[in-house]
Structures are given as structure tokens and as C-alpha cells.
Amino acid sequence: MARRRLEAAIHAGKDIEEGKDWPSHFDKVDLFKELPFEKVRDGVYSLQFSFDSKVLAVGYGNGGVEFLDSATYDTIHECKASRYGGLAITSMKFNPKQQDVMFAGSSDGAVYACYLDKGTYSEIIKERGNEINCLDFSALGLTFATAGKDLDIRIYDSKTLKVVKTYKGYHYDTPPDQQDRCHAARIFALKYHPDNDDIFVTAGWDNHLKIWDARSSDGVKRTIAGPHVCGDSLDIDGYKILTGSWCAKRSLQIYDYSEGKLEQNITFPDTGQGEFLYCAQFCDNDVVLAGGSGTNSVQAINTKTQKCLGAIKMEKPVQAMDSTLGGRLFAVGGADNCLRIGKLAC
Fold this sequence. Notes:
This protein has about 350 residues and is mainly beta. It has one helix at about 1-20, and strands at about 30-35, 45-50, 55-60, 65-70, 75-80, 90-95, 100-105, 110-115, 120-125, 130-135, 145-150, 155, 165, 185-190, 200-205, 210-215, 220-225, 235, 240-245, 250-255, 260-265, 275-280, 285-290, 295-300, 310-315, 320-325, 330-335, 340-345. Strands 1-28-27-26 form a four-stranded antiparallel β-sheet, with no helix packed on it. The protein has a four-stranded antiparallel β-sheet with strand order 2-3-4-5, with no helix packed on it. The chain has a four-stranded antiparallel β-sheet with strand order 6-7-8-9, with no helix packed on it. The longest helix is centred in the first third of the chain and has 17 residues, at about 1-20. The radius of gyration is 19 Å and the shape is globular.
């Protein structure tokens, strides 16, 4: 994703200063910490580490947003209080231009700006009639995009917060020659390309990946049939697109961005209940992390050897995951009343 490039640059500078040499392989998963929370929070729906990896943001099912210190996991701020009847915080991204500001999308159609330094928030956008399932910033942070229930993709200016372009979703009167240029069912994942400020990829219930170019009027430049995406299970690394589908078998796949073809099926071990993924991310050293409701776990898998390196197990479905430091630290949340922190190690 676009965040990875800035995060890598920040940590590369620190490692040079400190003389660190990160391991060139992973061979296990360690459970580092378990953080129980109140049942009233209705589970975890989104997670996001800051660019410098020092802060973990947690988005809860009842609308709460909390910032945790990723060294101690003490609460820094509960910047948006949880409330009974509140709707889920479904997607969160830190702003590359203002790294102490995070945008949070909600099932109520709002985007909230959450301020790390002050521990406050404000509603900055309201998409009436929509449920925002995903948002992401472009690599340089000049724009960000949202998508969700109403099938439209809206691109905003990050400074003015004004819509600069809208790509409409499918409607009953959409002309036949334009139907492949839009999504026909709910969108659950949107990721900007880490090396191109205008390119982003989307996926959702309509079993297609769509590659967009914001410089064009029609937007869609390629459609790839296959993935049935129901969560934040889309990632980009160079010319590879990682997808996690909510299906029983062959759920974890890598597609070739330039060719528009399936490149690899990655074996995701299950216990006979199916795979059914909600989240997936690339990590360093040819490893991916993925999890969902089939196994109620996040598993680390080496894409070269197809070996599962280990898992963080939950009692209920995994709904959210984020990693930092190339996977050396990652967070897992879901329907459990517990947040778990894992590490990839050698």
C-alpha cells in the first residue's frame, strides 16, 4: 500500500543511524501481547499503525477510536468515545502530509479526522446514504479516496476536503458499454499504488478487481475477474496484487498487476471449516499475513515455500489486522473482546 513507502523511508533512516541489521528471513510467529477490552465496544473493525510505528490506532464496532502506545500498549488517547448504538469504524489511515492526523471512515457515512497530539476528533465529511467501508491516501498524500455501500468512488483533495472526482457505481440505467467501468456490488477494499499517486485498486462483492487511473475520465483501466472481497484484504507490492477472498478454498491469491492474470494461489491452512478471509497483507521476506472467519486466526505464510510459519488464534472471527516494520509487529482484532499483538521472527 501507499503507506509502506513512507514508513520504510522513516525506519531506514533510523536503522542506518542505529546500525541495525534486520533478519533476512522469518520462520515463526510469536504472540507478544493480549489486550482484553469491554464487550460494549462490539469488537474491533479496523487497525492502523502510525508511519513511525510508535502508535496503534484501534477502531471499534460501536464507533470508538483509541490510540495506543505500541511499546507499552497503554492508552494515549481515546479520541472518539465509544457509545451504545454507535456504528463501526471500518477503515483508518494516517495522513502522509500530517502524520499526527488520522482519517477514519465509518458505517454512518462519515469521515472523521482524529488528532493524535490533542486526542480530539472532528467530522470532516458526510456521505449521506453511504456506508464507508474503505479509504486510502495517495502515496504523496495530496488526495484520498473512499468507497462503500453506494458503489461510488469519491476522490477528495486532502487539504480542502472537496470532492475532485467521482466514479459512479453501477445503476439499472448504466449503458451496457459502460458496465465494466464500475462496481456492481458493495466495495470493501481500496488501495493506492505505493509508487504512483494516480493509480489505485478496488475490490468487493462483485468478484472483480478494478485498477483505476485518476487522470482519466472513465477511471477503470483493467478489470480482473476472481476475488470475492469482504474486508481489508487487498494489498499492492510493485507489480503484485494480494487478495484475500471470503470463500472456502483458494482464498489467498496474488495477481500480476501488469498482465491482469492470476500469478499464484497461496495455500491457507484450514481445519475443515473453510478459509473465508477478511484481511491480507504483504510483509518482508516473501511472507504474507491473512486471516478471517474460517479459522478464526491470522496465519503467516511464506509464498515461496507455501509453508505456514505460525498463527495468532482468536476465539471468534478475525475482522481487522495491520502490520508494521515489514511484519515484525502486527495487530489482530475482531469479534473477540481482545486485541492481540504478534511478531514475525526468526
